[in-house]
Design goal:
Layout: E1 8-11, H1 14-18, H2 40-55, E2 68-74, E3 80-88, E4 98-105, H3 114-128, E5 133-136, H4 143-152, E6 155-156, E7 162-165
Bound molecules: coenzyme A (COA).
Coenzyme A binds next to strand 4, helix 3 and helix 4.
Length: 168
């Protein structure tokens, strides 16, 4: 396994959820974005996430648990920048406490252990906020994503999804 990058997770600004009643538009914050950010997956993921929170009555007054986070790394110069994001697909159902995650990193910054480090941090947030297990999907053809999940400790399930359970 490659060495894990040092990453910080920055919650997507609440203004991003306010920017469009139908789905959210990413609003830049104080941390600069990598020129390739945001990716299409970022926009689509945020829209789905906001819809999932609205479906359970979120009032959008504060950043909720089970949110999306921008992945911040320091360049060689030491200047932090947003290079991707990692987040939940929505709150877990109350009866199973299983939450689903997704992630993406801009092409120029891939292969440095960034997604593995960020997903590890997100899984720890899931344990902190009461999840029983974390689930993820990765196509057979998406070797990079499958290796991320293996690196974090997810196990492939009979249905092809990946799961990691709260350590006892
Ligand atoms: C999947 C993705 C997030 C990985 O990001 P990343 O920061 O490059 O991942 P890491 O550097 O942590 O690499 C994790 C593992 O994947 C391997 N890997 C990276 N790119 C790879 C590639 N193109 N093919 C095969 N393996 C690859 C790394 O070698 C590493 O393996 P190791 O832990 O065994 O050494 C990134 O490729 C991406 O954004 N893809 C598009 C969006 C996407 O597919 N998201 C996931 C949806 S489920």
């Amino acid at each position: 396994m490659s060495a894990l990058a040092t990453v910080t997770l920055l919650p997507v600004a609440l203004e991003s959820a306010h920017s469009s009643s139908s789905g959210g538009v990413l609003v830049p914050g104080q941390t600069p974005w990598h020129p390739e950010y945001p990716l299409l997956e970022t926009i689509q993921g945020l829209s789905m996430l906001i819809g999932a929170h609205q479906a359970v009555g979120w009032d959008a007054l504060e950043v909720p648990a089970w949110w999306m986070y921008q992945i911040v790394v320091a360049e060689d110069s030491g200047r932090p920048q947003v290079v991707g994001d990692v987040g939940f697909h929505g709150p877990p159902a109350a009866d199973d406490l299983v939450v689903e995650v997704g992630y993406d990193v801009v092409p120029a910054m891939r292969g440095r252990g960034i997604a593995t480090a960020a997903c590890t941090a997100l899984v720890n947030l899931a344990w902190r906020d009461g999840a029983r297990a974390v689930r993820a999907e990765a196509e057979i053809s998406n070797e990079a994503s499958r290796r991320v999940l293996a690196g974090v400790g997810f196990a492939e399930q009979p249905d092809g999804s990946f799961l990691i359970e709260l350590p006892s």
